[in-house]
Design brief:
This protein has two helices and 17 strands. With 265 residues, it is mainly beta. The protein folds into two domains: 167 residues, Sandwich (Immunoglobulin-like); 84 residues, Immunoglobulin-like, CATH 2.60.40. The strands form five sheets. Strands 1-2-8-5 form a four-stranded antiparallel β-sheet. It is globular. The two termini are 36 Å apart.
Length: 265
């Protein structure tokens, strides 16, 4: 059994002891930006995660190890939920293996859209969540969270939570990348080749690329090389677990203290 398979097997085995340690290494809760639901409008909710010292959870693509935090929704008829809006990730390690996750406190934002007509006076939103929290050891967890909010004609912010959401939005990767990005390698090529050409003066140098869909693994070294024309070039092996036939490279790029979302073709 290979290294990766061994780690995955250990991770799956750890679920057997879940019930007694569902909150190990973190405090987790479901919060709403507004105290009520307005028919036909969106409300913002979030899974708030406070990590204990030395612990981390995982981003949407954890990398070579780990398990992304996930939410499955049970909503009243006519309500819909968006995908998770992920704050920018950071590099961390599990058992010496580099991975993508969070050691800082974060909120995983989800937009809930209410139908134009709500026949009840209260709306109950249930989030079935799962996560993996790791330090020296890993502790998978499951928990259901419920928000029961009154139906109202007035949408106001909850002063107890609005500042948390404001900070969380500030941690979303910017879509206004300071480079034009182009992939010059073919789909399924053994090596991925990415060019970043500055589209503004004083564009920062890229430091690291977090692959959103696993085309590039967290255990492959990355080096952006600056070209004579000021552009940056990255060549890195494609992950053996990469999805097939991909013609774009969705990713978050760290550049200094800034983070940018790209999806070059």
């Amino acid at each position: 059994m290979g290294k990766i398979s061994s780690i995955l097997a250990l991770s799956l085995f750890s679920f057997s002891g879940l019930a007694a340690q569902e909150s190990k290494g973190l405090d987790i809760s479901l919060i709403s930006e507004t105290p009520s639901v307005v028919p036909g409008k969106k409300i913002t909710v979030g899974l708030r995660i406070h990590h204990h010292s030395g612990f981390h959870t995982y981003w949407k693509n954890p990398g070579i190890v780990g398990m992304a935090t996930a939410i499955k929704w049970k909503l009243p008829d006519g309500f819909t939920a968006s995908e998770i809006r992920w704050p920018y990730p950071a590099l961390t390690t599990m058992a010496g293996h580099p991975c993508h996750g969070y050691e800082r406190d974060v909120i995983l934002i989800v937009e809930i859209t209410a139908p134009k007509k709500i026949p009840t006076k209260m709306a109950t939103l249930t989030a079935e969540t799962r996560w993996m929290c790791c330090a020296k050891d890993c502790y998978p967890g499951f928990k259901d969270f419920t928000l029961t909010l009154p139906v109202s004609d007035l949408s106001i912010l909850d002063p107890k939570t609005s500042q948390h959401f404001k900070r969380a939005r500030g941690e979303m990767p910017s879509k206004a990348a300071p480079w034009e990005t182009t992939v010059t390698s073919k789909a399924d090529a053994k090596h991925i080749k990415l060019w970043l050409t500055p589209n503004k003066a004083n564009a920062p140098a890229p430091d690291y690329l977090f692959s959103e869909d696993g085309q590039i693994s967290s255990n492959k070294k990355q080096k952006f090389t600056k070209q004579n024309d000021g552009s940056f070039f990255l060549e890195v092996p494609r992950s053996e677990f990469s999805p097939k036939n991909k013609t774009s490279l969705p990713a978050v790029i760290k550049a200094g203290n800034s983070h940018f979302r790209i999806s070059p073709t």
